[in-house]
Amino acid sequence: MGTSDTSPANKRVTDRMGTQTEVRFVESVCLPLLRSAQNSDGGWGFHPGSESRTEPTCWALQALLQCSWQEIPEAAVRGFQFVREAQLRDGAWPSARAEQVGCWVTALACWVLLAEENSSNAVAMGLDWLCKDWPRDSTLWRRFLARFSSQRDIFPINNSYRGWGWTPGTSSWVEPTAFALLAFAECPTELLPPAAGRRRKLAEAMLRDRMCPGGGWNCGNPLVYGVAGEPLIIPTVWALLALRNRPEQRENVLSLEWLEKNVANIHGPGSFALARLCLEAYGRRWPSDAPEFGSFHEKNEFLRNIQVAAWSCLALGAKRGFLAAGWPFGVTS
Amino acid sequence: MNARNAALIPSFQRPVSKVLIRRAANYKQELASLIYESLCEFNLPINDKTVLLKPNLVGLDPLGIMNTHPAVVAAAREAFLRLGASQVLIGDGPAMDRDTEAIIESVRLREFAGPLARTFVDLNVDDVERVPLKTQASRLRELYLPKTALGVDFLVSMPKLKTHHWAGVTLSLKNMFGVVPGSCYGWPKNILHWAGIDRAILDINAAVGPDFAIVDGIVGMEGNGPIQGTPKECGVLVLGDDPVAVDATCCRVMGFNPIKFKYLARAGTLLGHVAAEKIQQRGESIASVRKPFAVLDAFRQVVE
């Protein structure tokens, strides 16, 4: 456990949190971990001391911004610089710096850079790359072939709907599709590529098509060999957040119900934090029988995972609306 | 070049492999001594070495049906420590769910293996290193793989004895899909499916091949595995220092002809032995523990 930080930024955390226990948890565990784990290149790895990567840097930045107030902390300025420098020439971001091919983290990088005024060009290039990155499983040729494939019965999905894959040239999956939709939703209209509207429609339809029969999402297999897929917390959260512009839709209602019912059975802090973030973004009451958040940390120290600490910051700050009420720095959808 | 690159040796130049089958009635019996005594038969170079146990953790599994049972993992950890290992890590990168901690808590790994904060490595989010694929059986030319898996002295694949709806069976070779990091390739690691599962299994095992395999066949899974299948009580552990031979033996225990699985047939040419005459069976005989597994229609042809 670290000592409580009394910096102005952290005092503002107190203004925004729900309970004293949660405030103490964020101040004494999550924020100190994030601050101490920033690398000299400005980025964060998945663990303290590990090499900087795009994804944990994006989440650490989101958390620092959420837990600050009007000004952007110095640590975040260095983090933004890391993210900008990690962008590839084609506009995409790789998961690790050594990689030469971009992937799904491009959506996360665009999303977080929206909070930084000098990054408009980088964001526009990233979103353009996303619009050009079509999944391979749903090309016209693949859809024609699929009519004659036995896979059609094994894995019955509507492949005219198209989202995003984890890596280029693969299939659509729930989480990367949700991340891309979130990046587009948070982006000011003037930065959106012309194809963004069409991609969003297809992707939203794809997410709705991939919902598990009883509500909730897994990675994107609602039915395999005639057996209903089991939903998972994290894909459900991201899909719900990506589709939150239509809360009255059947998929949203069923999946929120599934999420609320399953909060008490969550085993991991990452799932727990994101479930809370999602329910609060939808204005739902946090279940009274949910376990104490800090109890998760006592078990395995979050496996020292920076991203889980960042998600915890975002969840515990959700009373003032990460995603629910726009950005604290004034960039809103 | 990483330290884990498997030696590609034509099977006719390889010495006979040794595979040990042990009976283990259930997960409550004393498994650490059983595994320790089994490991002693292999004269393994473990003293002062760092060992990584790579179980098969595929999803939330409170009933203990789909994942390698934590009792077996904990017992193997204790056995390797008894053999003189300086450190025994446990690591996996689950393919379908990025909340690895939720999975290990749901299977109660901490209850069996003790505190995990510094013992368990989530291979999905480990630091990565570029590894050129020397076999290039698939269209993949390189993979970014976890430094922990590449850097340890001794890597142990610990799958559960299961059928698999795409690969036919998932044993110690298929289990190595779990070292491919989700943080680079996603959940699931779909790039491997597009590359061809059979061929990707070969590429991965040639790049980051396990030194040893311990298969949890106490309760396996048949039918629509690896997640939605049916539990199958077999009451065995299968161990060996040639993972290909271990998998071939497991297939025979399950009532399958290993040569009928494309990836095993190919692995049998360069990575280990599949042919029965090249495998010295120790412990229980295959015939005495054989329990034919149900398979999906797509794999009827593998049944012996």
Question: Could you outline the blueprint of secondary structure elements for this entry?
Answer:
The complex is a heterodimer of chains A (333) and B (304).
Chain A: H1 8-16, H2 20-36, H3 54-66, H4 74-86, H5 105-113, H6 120-132, H7 140-146, H8 151-154, H9 174-186, H10 196-209, E1 223-224, E2 227-228, H11 233-242, H12 250-262, H13 269-281, H14 294-300, H15 306-316
Antiparallel strand pairs in A: 1-2
Helix pairs in contact in A: 2-15, 3-4, 3-5, 3-15, 5-6, 5-9, 9-10, 9-11, 11-12, 11-13, 13-15
Chain B: E1 17-23, H1 31-40, E2 50-55, H2 70-82, E3 87-92, H3 100-106, H4 109-113, E4 120-122, E5 128-132, E6 142-146, H5 147-151, E7 154-158, E8 160-164, E9 168-170, H6 182-185, H7 190-195, H8 197-207, E10 212-222, E11 230-240, H9 243-253, H10 262-270, E12 279-283, H11 286-289
Parallel strand pairs in B: 1-12, 2-3, 2-7, 3-4, 7-10, 8-10
Antiparallel strand pairs in B: 1-11, 5-6, 8-9, 10-11
Helix pairs in contact in B: 1-2, 8-10
Can you describe what's shown?
The complex is a heterodimer of chains A (333) and B (304). By secondary structure, chain A is mostly helical. Chain A has a domain at 87-210. Chain A has 15 helices and two strands. A two-stranded antiparallel sheet of chain A has the order 1-2. In chain A, helix 3 (54-66) runs parallel beside helix 5 (105-113). The longest helix of chain A has 17 residues, at 20-36. Chain A is globular and about 55 Å long. The model of chain A is unreliable at 1-17 and 325-333 (pLDDT under 50). Chain B has one domain: Rossmann fold (3-Layer(aba) Sandwich). Chain B is 28% helix and 24% strand. The longest helix of chain B has 13 residues, at 70-82. The mean pLDDT of chain B is 95. At the A-B interface, helix 13 and helix 14 of A face helix 3, helix 6 and helix 7 of B.
